[in-house]
Structure formats: C-alpha cells, structure tokens
Amino acid sequence: MNLAMEAHIDAFALNIAAGWVGNDAQIANAFTAANSLGFKLFFSFDYAGNGPWAESDVYNLIRTYGWNAAYYQYNGAPFVSTFEGTDNANDWITIKAETGCFFMPDWSSRGAEVALKLGGGVADGLFSWAAWAWGSWNMTTYVDASYNQTLNGKPYMMPVSPWFFTNLPGYKKNWLWRSDDLWYDRWQQVLYFQPEFVEIISWNDFGESHYIGPLDDTQYSAFTIGNAPYNYVENMPHDGWRQLLPYVVDTYKNGHAAFDTEVLVTWYRPTLASACGDGGTTANTASQLQIEYRPVDIVDDRIFISALLSEPAYLTINYGVGEYGVDWDYTPEGGVGIYHASMALNGQTGSLTIQLLRDSGVFISYNPSQGISTTCTNDITNWNVWVGSATYTLTSTIPPPLSLSKQVCVQGWGVGNFEGLYYDFQFLACSGSLTNDKKMEHQLESWNNVTSNFATITIGGNDAGFSKVLIQCILQPPFYGKGGHWWSGETFDCDGEISNAQAVIADKDFTGRLSALYQQILDIPPADQQFALYVAGYSQFFDTTNKADCGTLGLLWYKPPLTLDLRQKINSLTLQVNEKIQQAIANVTVRPHRSITYVDWDSRMDGHRFCTPGYSDEPITNKYEAAHEYFFPSYDTEDNYEGEEDQWPPSSSTTYPVDSQTYSFSVDPKTCANNLDNSGDIFDPDELSNIWCTWAIESATNASFAAAIEAYMTPQSASSADGNITVVWTGDEMVVTFSGSASLGSTAQIFHPKSLGHAFMAEGFLAAIQSSR
To answer: What Pfam families does the entry give (predicted)?
Structure first.
C-alpha cells in the first residue's frame, strides 16, 4: 500500500472470488492496513473465478465494509465493481437499493450497449476490461469511444495495463497480446480521453504478467495450479513502470503535474523472439473469438524507453556491436514531460548501457542487470518483459509549460481563411501527424460536428519518413550527408533513408495502424447516421519521362542532382504507400450506414511534377519556375500570380514575381541544442535547425572550422539564383544572414502541395463523392 501511495494510486480494487476460505481474514487484514495508512479499498466481485456470488454474500460484505473509513466512496456512496457476472445482473437491483452503493461493473463480455441495459439499467457506470491491442495493431480508443457514446454522460472507468502474457494450461490460458508500447500509449490516451475513472490492470496478477507491484514468491501458486511449463515471472521485475505514475496520474487528475526527479524507464524481453520454441503460445486467443497468430509475427524485438524529462535530451544505447543514437518517437508538448522511443535489436544479444545526455554531458547512465540472450528456460521463449529504471534528481521542481487543457496541436492547424469559406465543416488537420500519435488522437477527440456526413484524410507519409528521404536525397547540405545528427553518431544517407522508408512501409504494422485509424474515424458518428470517409493517396513528385538529370533542388551550394534513378526511387515510395493505404482500406470493417473510398489523384499531377519537360528550357535552378507552383520545393510562402490570384489553372504566360528580402538570425552554441526536436516548434523536427546548431557548437571550440565555415559561406561561394548567405561571428554567437530570395530557416513545408496541387486533390475528392451518390 505504501508503494501504491508513492505512485499516487488512490485505491486498490479487492478482486475477491466467491467461496474462498480466506476471504474473511484477508479482507479484514486489508482494511486494518488501509486504515493505518490512510489508503482506500473497494470491492470488485469476481463472478468468473469460483462461479457467481450469492446475492446475500455480496450484500453482507458491502454492509460490513462499505462505510468503513478506508472504503473508497464516490459522491458519498460505496464504490463497487465486478469482474463479469452478467447472469446475476438482476441481483444488483436489490443490492443497490439496500446498500446505497455506486455500481460500476465490468460486463465487457456483453459490450457497452447491452451491458448498460442489463438489470433494467442498474449500472451507474461501466468498466471495460479491453486494455490490450488486437493482433499487430497498437492500442486504440475504439472500445473506449463505444463506451463513452453508450454511457452518454454516465461515468466510464477506462482500463490501463502495461502487458499481457499467460501460459497456464491448467486454466486453459496460453496467449499474449501485443503490448510493446502499451504503457506509454495507453496513458497518453487517458490524458486526452479524460474518463471519470482509470483502473490499472493490475497490481499483482502474476499469472497474466501485467503486474506493476513488486515480485512476491508467496503469490506464485498460479504457476503450480495452472501447470505452467516454467515460472515466467521469477526475476522479471516490473517496478520501473511505477516510476512514471506520479506524473501521469497527477496530470490526468489535475491537468498538470510538477516533478523534481527525471526518470528513465526501459523494458524489453530478455530473449529474442525466434531463439527458442514458442511454448504453444498464440498471439490473440480463439477463446475470445479472435484470429490467432504466431507470437513471432506480432511482437517486436526492441528495447523500449520512456523518460520523464524537464527539457529535451539525447538518448544513446550501447548494445551489441556498437553505440546507437536513438531519436525520440514521441516528445511532449513544450518539451517538458514524457518522451518515448524504441530501438530494434536486429538479432543482436548482450548487455546494454542506456544514457541520457545534454550539452553539459551525461546525466543518466543506466546499466540494466538483465541482458538479452538466446537462452531460454526449458527451451521455451519467455514472452514476459523485464523492466528497469534510473533517476536523476533536479535542483528545483519543474512545472509543466502548458496545462493539459491548453495542449492542442501546436505544430499547426493549417493555414488560410477557413472562417471565410461558405461550407460548414471542421478543419482538424495537424501538420506532422502520425497514424497513432497524440496529435491525431487530439484531432479525433476535437471532432464535435458529429452531424458530418463525410470526412477526408491523407496520412501515412510521415509514418513512412518521407521528410527524411527528401532532406537526405534532395536538399542534402554539406557536412551532413553521412554524418547524421552530431550528437548521436547515427549514419543517415540517401540510400539508407530510402531503405528505412521501404522497411517501414513493408512492415505489417504500417497497414495495421492505417486500418485502425480509419476504423476509429468511421465509428465516431452515431450508428444510424450516414457517413463516408474518403482517403487520399499521395502524388508522385517527379516526372520520369526525361531520362537526363533535370537539375537540382538543393538548398545550399552543394546541390545533389536529380538523376532518373533517384526520381524513380522516390516516386516508388509514394506508390508503395498508396498500395498499403488501399490494403488498409480493404481490411476495415464497414458497418451499415458507413463507406470508405480510396481517392487516387496522382494522374491529375501529370505535367505538373518536378522535372516535367517543357516548363523551362533550363534545368531547375530556382523556386520560381512554373513546375514548382504545385509543390513546395522548400519552406516558402505561396507565390502570387499577378492578375490571376483567383484563377486556376494559371495560363502559360503567367509571370512569377521574385520577392527580395534580407534577414538574419543568430545561433547560440550554448543553448541552441535545447531547442532541437522541440515539440512546441511549428517546424519540428527541422533538419536545417540541427545543421546550424551543429556548426555553431563545433565552431565555438574549433577556430579552424569556424574560419572554414565563414570562408565557404561567402557571397562568392554560396551564391545561387535564390540569393546569398553569409555567416559571421558576433560575440559568442553565429549570425546567419540571407539576402535575395533565399529561405533556409526551416524545411517543414518541403514537397507539400501548394494551392494548385491541393486543387487537384480537391478535384479527386469531389469526383469520388459525386460517383458515390
């Protein structure tokens, strides 16, 4: 109980089975301990363990303890739950009337709609047991949304669990559910879903591997009774997961949380998935009418890391044959909060060292006591997970930069005068969204125009890593080609980024995440409302009819040529993503009154792609050629067509004005790294910002490097048709000045369609809508 209170847990659910001889003594002991500590307890009557509870026994327990000082109450009434018990729903009509309890059962086996009607609507709210993902998908809020909609204002208790694996043949249980990123993902979903209650499954259910309490060898009887082939809990602590709870619990309850200790938490399976036999374990379970898979096809051999940080930090992992810089997959709004990442093991084994570092050096260096190997007990893979943690004490308490209520899509809600349009619709697009990140979740949860009869979406390119490919292959500046981030030691190059993108697209999880998102969108409107989802693919960027090099779109003086091979490779990525989008659509369950349609607008861009012959007699040398008016070649504003602002398409005689400008910005080597990968930056993550910071930091301690940069960045050597760039040192800062039309501050808009490109996309959507009516 002390450990639970340290984790900011409010109460324990006492899951009690009917007829167990130890119930009376253990319940009395629990309330004695809770009263001595000021902790709370409530009953969860288990109707599945030893069969149904007798109505009189339930009544007597609630009457005996419901008004105990340690019993958890809600709005002045004893809070009571169950695990199943749908056949005894009518018992609760009398129990509620005689005890005055607040009743929130788990009747998940019947689904939200039926459960709410059982016992004549006796439930005051509902608890769902659906805390784990299906197949290879990451966790979604689809089931939560169904409860929320059905309850229509009544309280909902949302389940959160870190893991699931059981191998107890004596109980006819031997399966796992994908849980890789679950502890991070689920809490992010809680923060945005904001249910009335959250129940963590579980504190000490060792048989199903989802315990967050300490190991206790006096509670391992399930492995003997359940005929387990081995004890898959022994030496497998999960305590580290609790380290994050004070922050997420306080944020959930109060909208914000302060902390004075930075935390690193890591978890991974100690054995590679294919090293030993699977023990007959399945991924998913037919016992719950699920399609079963082999575990090796569902789980990932990865190291998972979540870190509670007061400001951005770099993550490195020394493992196997080398040290690896690992980019964060998720960063918190404003840079303060929980960061999350994972790294593939790639078949390697051994011990590992995980480090967090900033400019001042390493502040957390953690050597987990558990390594990764190919050795298994009884030659059976243990699908349970090992969890460890390390901390760093701060000199002061860190408040959050934003309360939860103000954490919206800070990376941009789009541009333009949407309020001035004639049509009534919600624009919820958020730049940089991934299929399963919190920005996408927030967009869906912000959807309040539930009378909408259709929606459009384009997503998948960010998941595939389009921006990294374009930066490395098209905009690639010097000092960066195969050097990677200065702090990480990772190697990035054009062919490498293309290979990375191909691997992501080919991964079954890519298609699964798309399907899950489409399904979630389709299930938001009321069930009897007609609703259609139109999903756009991506347009190829380059024309490939011209076999010769067609110029360059490079931003600095080193400008990679646009070869035919490079154009074909990048176009191929967009076609591969489009194919996966169509597969994902085919996997969606289309219920009555729903439809989902793929929108192919790629052919409409023929004649308007980069490198299209005939747009110019010269190779691409600047951003004002007509071909560029359909895509942004770099960060830029829309160019006005003089006299034709409202006409589309422009005539072939349209002239394109060149906007002259001179501006400067400074880069402080002492602080610039703090702003890299800042989730509060509208252009994050921005590779050019990384480059300027890299040069400033190196120049601060390397005079010859600073001189070389200044020499290179002169009007003579850095000049192009786009303008000039100069770099000088003023005081302790590097000052970068642009003149002419150069625009190298950031790269967020690269290769996104401009208005003319979006007009083609709009035509595609309109044609699809009209053909479906």
So the answer is: Glyco_hydro_71
